[in-house]
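Input.
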Amino acid sequence: MARKATDCRDFPSVSNCSMYMAGEEDELLKAAVAHVIAVHGHTDSPQLREDVKASMKDPVPGS
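Output.
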C-alpha cells in the first residue's frame, strides 16, 4: 500500500491547526480520524471517514 498524507492547513479552522500526517492509507485514516475528533471536535461517522479519505494526497517528499 502506498503512503498518503493529509494536512490540516488545507482546511482552515478556528484552531489554525498545522498538523501534517503521512503513512500507509489504513494507518493514516485511523490517525487522521482520531485527530479531527479529538482536536477539531468532529463526530465520528461514515461521512467523516469518507471526507478524510478524500483529503489524502501524495506525501511531500522527505516527510
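Residues 3-55 form one domain.
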